Amino acid sequence: MAMTTTPAVQPFPLYSARGSNRDLGLQHGEQAREQIRAHLDALQRSLGLATAAFEERALAFQPLFEEHCPHLVEEIEGLARGAGISFAGGLAINTRGALGAPNAAVDGGCTAFVIGREAAEQGEVLIGQTSDMLPETIDFAYVLRLHPVDKTAMLMWTFGGMIGYHGLNALGVAHMANDLGDGGPGRRFAMPHYPVKRMMYECTTVAEVVALLRRVPLWSNGNYVLCDGAGSILDIEATSAGPELIEDDGRGYITHTNHYCSARYATEENAAATYADSFPRLARINAFLADRSGSFSVGDLRAALSDHANYPTSICRHASSSNPDDGFETAGVTAAALIAEPEQGRLHIAPGNPCSSPFTTYELDA
Predict the structure, then answer these.
(1) Cα separation of 155 and 143, whole Å?
(2) Nearest 5°: phi and psi at 51?
(3) Which one, of 359, 316, 363, lies nearest residue 339 by Cα?
(4) Closest Cα partner for 268 from 260, 257, 280, 278?
(5) Among the four residues 16, 30, 58, 131, which has the most C-beta atoms within 10 Å?
(6) Which residues pair with 126 in a beta bridge?
(7) Strand locations in the chain, DSSP E?
């Protein structure tokens, strides 16, 4: 297939908020009003539900939020007010995939990594990923910097009103994520991943994140690469049956794509149920990192995330169809590429394909 390069797009806007959870939500909603309303409309259309049925489905999750993160209920109330949407709409955005049918398809693919201090050129932890989705996500996305009054500050890439997504906090805790393909433990009525991602930023160590994922039940399966300010790195396949931990085994780095790698779930049956391109992407990022162990730099990782081996389903993913109704496998693209320096409070992000869009650096303490 001939290479087609997407044009560079503008850097993602940066929105900042400070104060109580309700204040954070209100300021977030006011600044991202356009993206939030567009995301909500797209979500409701994708489910094919009338407003009353759509909101009823979202409100069913409210007791779970109140049980596990009541402070985030207040933030979603503020978000809804700031964006001029209903509380149920704000809850729907932060429930998202869990609103679909039990066997609804996952959002898309991602290639993620975390690199320990001993393997990096500057002796600092590096963590990042491509975030691969349908292209409309690019229009909903922005960078969000939050300074809660009673918790650590955080900086994340997110979209359309979601209060938890990829990024870091001021204590060096950072997480990136991958969807996991079909297979593994079944889905159930439990907490969506997005508020749990946000609660990870309220942790001070990787060990606290592990405890969080053991305590809070999840509706579906997802994967997280993690680090903290003490230099710990870890991968967690966070399933509806509980977390499975994957360590670096002395390599100094951990990688993950969209299939199970833990001993418990890396079965032939589960492998057959996931995206076929997940396996070559993992092999490719591993080969890239193995060649450079001990000398990784941000520049090296920008090159890795721009790689086109096995194009178009490469690490830097390009669509082979322009029709989003064809689904992720043919219409999915890299919506953003992210590289974080958590100990420096820096997040480098390329909007869309990193092969054609430059990275912009966002600072937690600007």
Answers:
(1) 7
(2) -60, -45
(3) 359
(4) 260
(5) 131
(6) 115
(7) 14-19, 110-115, 126-133, 141-148, 154-159, 166-169, 174-179, 222-227, 233-239, 242-246, 253-256, 333-341, 346-351, 360-363
Alpha helices in 48-116 (DSSP H): 51-59, 62-68, 70-83, 87-93
Using CA atoms, how far apart are residues 315 and 305, in angstroms rounded to an integer? 6
Q: Which of 305, 158, 181, 313 is nearest to 237 (CA)?
A: 181
Give pairs for 42-49: CB < 8 Å, separation 24+.
42/136, 42/140, 42/160, 43/92, 43/93, 43/96, 43/99, 43/160, 44/92, 47/99, 47/100
Enclosing H/E stretch for 212: helix 206-215
Please report where in the chains the tokens 């900042």 appear, as a residue.
16
Tokens read off for 279: 């396996």
Q: Taking the CB of residue 365, how many other CB atoms lie within 10 A of it?
A: 11
In this structure, the number of other CB atoms found within 10 A of the CB of residue 86 comes to: 16
Task: State the angle between helix axes of 193-200 and 206-215 in degrees (0 to 180), rounded to the nearest 10.
Answer: 150
Judge if pTM exceeds 0.70.
Answer: yes
Helix (H) or strand (E) holding 288: helix 278-290
Per-residue burial over 212-249, b = 16 or more CB atoms within 10 Å of its CB, e = otherwise: bbeebbbbbbbbbbbbbbeebbbbbbbbbeebbebebe
φ, ψ for residue 174, nearest 5 deg: -140, 150
Backbone region of residue 226 per phi and psi (left: phi > 0; alpha: psi in -120 to 50; beta: other values): beta
